[in-house]
Design goal:
The chain is an alpha+beta fold and 50 residues long. 42% of the residues lie in helices and 12% in strands. It is built from 2 helices and 2 strands, in the order E-H-E-H. The chain has a two-stranded parallel ribbon with strand order 1-2. Strand 1, helix 1 and strand 2 form a beta-alpha-beta unit. The longest helix is centred in the last third of the chain and has 11 residues. It is elongated.
Length: 50
Amino acid sequence: MHGVRLVISDDHHGLEAARKTVLGSVPWQRCQFSPAAERGRVCAPPIHAR
């Protein structure tokens, strides 16, 4: 891959290993949606239970 300037992904161990292998020196940023979605799923009751 050429021209990649930034990788944005969740913090999955398999993705981390692949990213470091394939795109070692490219900066990485953790996706902000996945952690927020996980917190919402854990903290908020399902809509049908309200």
